[in-house]
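Entry 14. Structure prediction run on the chain below.
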Amino acid sequence: MKQLHKLSTTTHHRRDEESPTILTAHQPYSPKAQKHPYSRSLPRSLSYLLTEQRLLFIIVGILIGSTFFILQPTLSRLAPPDPDRRRPSSSSYVPTSVSYWNRESVSSPYRSWGGSGRVPAGVGRKRSRIVVTGGAGFVGSHLVDKLLRRGDDVIVIDNFFTGRKENVMHHFGDPRFELVRHDVVEPILLEVDQIYHLACPASPVHYKYNPVKTIISLMDYKTNVMGTLNMLGLAKRIGAKFLLTSTSEVYGDPLEHPQKETYWGHVNPIGVRSCYDEGKRTAETLTMDYHRGAGVEVRIARIFNTYGPRMCLDDGRVVSNFVAQAIRKQPLTVYGDGQQTRSFQYVADLVDGLMALMEGEHVGPFNLGNPGEFTMLELAEVVKETIDSSATIEFKPNTADDPHKRKPDISKAKELLNWEPKVPLRDGLPLMVADFRNRILNEDEGKGNK
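Output returned:
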């Protein structure tokens, strides 16, 4: 019986395995999966690649495409040039705001680039962010004009002690120009590439009016960080290039003529001019100490007498004095016997020299001036010829510590900066006269209305 029961059980299980599955109402019908159509028409390995290795197929496609794009520039250079291909007209590549580009090269806005093709001229040079202290002053405002024309971003810092807002107001609205009313004796935080440090009262009337402020704007005290030291500290923190505008006054009443940069000077440290003379000498010392001790990249310019539009009308400098007096029909005031000599450079020449120094590789100091030498009487005669031949000359006692001779030796600037002044006095003076005449006329009209 046991064997019969075991046999019947085994037979029953076999029947269950061999019998088709009976569908119930709760089990959905699932047809048998069909084979992929590629498997019938393609080789088995390719069918497997397409059906099971899609990711590998995508990667291979990306590699093939990348190879094409890498080789395409090389193939285009090897292709013969198209004779019908013409350079597009310059008008289609000059932007509406020409000031973004170097305006001096807008007439020819293309230059070669790596031997193939052309690009707009302004693309090659990185636009710099530059701060100009004293940028609303006479020289500073002309420097700002040139930097903006070149395409740089410019921040002007000025406390308007001697500067005038009118000197830079034609840049208001330019997105690359900023004006900050600030005194450099107080610290300021900026992010710039270059610092042109021009801030300091430079005329006798101004620095004698406030000699203490003049000298502390250039010197360091234990309890305060002022003027030049502030700007040098800023240059050190942000890695900016720093240019100090020093002066020919560091030579004092020179015993060497003409003056070379190697001459140490002959300065009275307790005279009425010493606040300016010694202040600038100290500024040069600080600049070189930061260069040697802190690795700041610095430049030093020693500026000789400069004239041009936007000078202060009554700043005590000889050129502005003579021009203003001649326009106002006043006698030209000559101090002493009039035989003391000066050299006079036009402001545009000085700006070119400052920018050449900043962009060059040499620290300096460099004399920037016009070696053409005039006595005060000769200058008075040139002013008379230009403005009013009937003007008279009035002699007064000379001022204390007035240098007898002043003439730069600019051979170093010629050799290392490829710079020398180009505008002679008789060409530059009429440009200054036109500006002075317009301002004096407006000044007189304003007085008449009061």
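The mean pLDDT is 77.
Filed with the rest of this week's runs.
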